From TrEMBL:
Record's keyword annotation contains ATP-binding: no
Taxonomic placement: Bacteria, Pseudomonadati, Pseudomonadota, Alphaproteobacteria, Hyphomicrobiales
Name assigned to this protein: Gamma-glutamylcyclotransferase
InterPro entries for the chain: G-Glutamylcylcotransferase, GGCT-like, GGCT-like_sf
Cited CDD domains: GGCT_like (cd06661)
Domain of life: Bacteria
Organism: Lichenifustis flavocetrariae
Length: 149
């Protein structure tokens, strides 16, 4: 069963249960030397950046679920490409599938997208400092005011 590192919409356990019913969360995990960003298509991606860290969830995928995940990530249409990268978690290091967007251009998230990512990241127990970083990608209309921060 392949390992998969989720850092965007697939942090959502309910959505993953619908797309990949045979899969389960293993642990929170970290990917070193990459930075989260929103690509021009409006979805999350990663770009290499020395010293940066992306937090997410490590999933164990059922073999049948990999095709469903490839379809969801629009591999065939070229939205994302599938890589295998080493991620760290409390029990050690794992080689995991990571979907990285083909676009390198920064954009704004689609309506509701970052709100969902942030909610799932919070429920997933990702570190508060990282949640603050993710909040920076919320559309201006969804960001908490300075008084609320």
């Amino acid at each position: 069963m392949p390992a998969y590192f989720a850092y965007g919409a697939n942090l959502d356990r309910i959505g993953m249960a619908q797309r990949c019913p045979g899969s389960h969360v293993v642990a929170p995990a970290r990917l070193a030397d990459y930075r989260f960003f929103i690509m021009v298509d409006g979805y999350a991606s990663l770009r290499p950046e020395q010293g940066a860290v992306v937090h997410g969830l490590l999933w164990q995928l059922a073999p049948d679920d990999l095709a469903a995940l490839d379809a969801y990530e629009e591999i065939g249409a070229g939205l994302y490409r599938r890589l295998t990268l080493s991620v760290m978690h409390d029990a050690g290091v794992a080689d995991a599938i990571v979907y990285v967007g083909r676009s390198r251009e920064t954009g704004e998230s689609r309506p509701g997208y970052m709100e969902n990512v942030l909610a799932a990241a919070t429920l997933g127990g990702l570190p508060e400092a990282y949640l603050r970083e993710l909040r920076g990608w919320l559309p201006a209309t969804s960001r908490p005011s300075a008084a609320m921060a």
